Amino acid sequence: MKKAMIYSEEHKKYLKKQRLKIALVWLLRIGLLALLLGFWELSTALGWVDPFIMSSPSRVCKTIGSLYNDGTLFYHIGVTLLETLIGFVIAVVLGVLIALALWWSETVRRVLEPYIVVLNALPKIALGPLIIIWFGTGNKAIIFMTVLVGLIVAIMHMLSAFIATDKNKILLLKSMGASKLQILRKLVIPSSFASFISMLKVNVGMAWIGSIMGEYIVSRAGLGYLLVYGGQVFKLDLVMTAIFILCILAAGMYFLVVLLEKVLVKNTES
Amino acid sequence: MEQEILTFTDVKLTYHTRRGETTAAEGLNFSVNAGEFVAIIGPSGCGKTTLLSLAAGLLKPSAGVIKSHGSFGYMLQKDQLFQWRTIEKNIFLPLEIKKLNTPEHRERARNLAEKYGLKDFLQSYPSQLSGGMRQRAALIRTLATNPDILLLDEPFSALDYQTRLNVCEDVSAIIRSEGKTALLITHDISEAISLADRVLVLSQRPAHVAYSHELDFGEVKNPLKRREMPQFSEWFEILWRELNG
Ligand SMILES: Nc1ncnc2c1ncn2[C@@H]1O[C@H](COP(=O)(O)OP(=O)(O)OP(=O)(O)O)[C@@H](O)[C@H]1O
Ligand SMILES: [Mg+2]
Q1: Does residue B197 fall inside a structural domain?
Q2: Which of A80, A260, B95, B132 gives B163 a disulfide partner, CB atoms 3.0 to 4.6 angstroms apart?
Q3: Sequence-distant (≥ 6) Cβ neighbours of residue A99 within 8 angstroms
Q4: pLDDT tens for each residue of B132-190
């Protein structure tokens, strides 16, 4: 159905006010960022704080430039990004599949429940030594760490969504003679869609935690490696640069999920 | 000779849970004839929903025999429309489940929806419809597979009073004109009197049929007209006393 296109004067005023408000929020957001960066730059330029310890926006830019000239900027970004994405996808796919299996069989669910609880509470970094021994010091170990961090979260998130399916709707389908597979396909999966998206959002964060943690313990390349290396040789410019790039990548990945949500919602609702 | 389409003989049902056992029905005897509209009233928690689940075959009786000839359509208290499906797709749901999703069956269901005033809403989502319209869509969904017997579990109780009278009117007209057999559960005595050919009053738990009344409204099937007739308040008094006595 189409909405009426002719609005009253009052409504036009209201819309204008709303648009102004949104513009103001964006202006303030960008202003705040500029203010923080400016203050950072200024305080190091005027010698209030030691740029050697604090670095500064201009030094970060310079570092990015020199990494680019070395040809290593996109190499490090590429390494970490790939590990993060592969780990993310494996954790999500495997997590959903395991959650489905647990939904299917109450016995299996009850048997595995304590294991999942313990695995969830366990700090994954404790497994670092084992991971190095089992997977070596290449990116297999890092991807494994990424999967480990995201998997349990994905399982628990999706399982609780599957279990929360409306009992009366299940009864309705059963009264139509639906099989368990039909209940799963027609009801449980579609009604868990919103939870799936929120799980993706949470798992974007988990994947970055996993990959950087992995690079902390094993790697010879990537943004986590730059962080560790920069810290060890006291190159704070490098550390700040790596953090800066991580912020941008993590935000980018999050917005991709938001975009995916918008596309999927549009496809299902119109 | 009227044909019995559903018969309960000495039916008993006990629920077993870890906390204990509950007998929800015992010595339950009644039958429903083809084309008949039977309303069942009873104290809350006495086992009304259990009775419908038994009839639909969702529960197996602990003792006794349930015989039925024909297919069932079940309608619950809330409309239970899937909000991610359009009204049309909701109405096709039982066809998909029963693997009857052929062009002919879809056409039949769509005609039914159009006949009963849902034409303009087929492509809408449930959230865009009023409570009354949604309940009507739920009824059409129930009718989509052309069931012989409709099982209705307090289908109006989630609606406000005004909508409820209208939907009651609607549903009655649709069921009568489609010539369906209906078994309606309600806790509203006046609803039972205005809709049914026969009213069964259940006892406290475990449920059995305490009273059975053939209503004498003659050919008057319209709920609002019935409400204006002198018998209405007499029946109300009788049933109220039986339910609370
Ligand atoms: N799945 C179940 N497991 C155990 N006990 C149950 C179950 N379903 C119902 N009962 C019990 O059986 C009795 C009858 O329940 P039922 O839902 O059939 O009653 P009802 O007449 O429909 O109640 P209401 O008026 O609330 O709709 C209740 O005491 C209820 O607690
Ligand atoms: Mg009930």
Answers
A1: yes
A2: B132
A3: A154, A155, A157, A158, A159, A162
A4: 899 989 999 999 999 999 999 998 888 888 888 888 888 899 899 888 999 999 988 99
Q: Does A183 touch chain B (CB under 8 A)?
A: no
Question: Whose alpha carbon is nearest atom 30 of ligand 1?
Answer: B45
Residues near ion ligand 2 (Cβ under 5 Å): B 49
Asked whether residue B149 is assigned to any structural domain, the reply reads: no
- Reading the block at residue B237, the tokens are 């008094």
Burial class of residue B227 in the structure, from the number of CB atoms within 10 Å of its CB (0-12 exposed, 13-18 middle, 19+ buried): middle
Q: Check CB contact under 8 Å for B76 and A187.
A: no
ipTM of this complex prediction, to 2 decimal places: 0.89
Residues of chain A with C-beta less than 8 angstroms from the C-beta of B74: 171-172, 175-176
Domain ranges of chain A: 1-49, 55-269
Contact present, B124 and B153 (Cβ < 8 Å): no
The tally of domains found in chain B comes to 1
CATH of A55-269, one of 1.10.287.130, 2.40.160.100, 1.10.3720.10, 1.10.443.10: 1.10.3720.10
Strand partners, B9: B65
Is pLDDT at A268 greater than 70 in this prediction?
no
Among B125, B115, B119, CA closest to B87? B125
Q: Chain B contacts of A187, Cβ < 8 Å?
A: 82
* CATH code of B46's domain: 3.40.50.300
- Per-residue pLDDT band for B1 (boundaries 50, 70, 90) equals very low
| Cβ-Cβ contacts under 8 Å for B56 (sequence gap 6 or more) | A175, B72, B74, B151
Asked if residue B38 is part of any domain, the answer here is: yes
Closest Cα to atom 26, ligand 1: which residue? B45
Cβ–Cβ gap A1/B94 under 8 Å:
no
Structure tokens given for A37 = 């960066």
Classify residue B121: in a domain, yes or no. Answer: no
Give B44-91 pLDDT, tens digit per residue: 899 999 999 999 999 999 999 999 988 999 999 889 999 999 999 999
> And the tokens for A158?
């999706």
Does the beta carbon of B142 lie inside 6 Å of ligand 1?
no
Average pLDDT taken over every residue of chain A? 91
Domain that holds residue B21: 1-70+183-245
Regarding the beta carbon of B44 and ligand 1, being less than 6 Å apart is answered yes
Specify the pLDDT at position A266.
73
Do A269 and B84 count as a contact with CB atoms less than 8 A apart? yes
Q: What average pLDDT does the segment B117-127 reach?
A: 92
B127 lines ligand 1 (CB under 6 A): no
Q: What is the pLDDT of residue A120?
A: 92
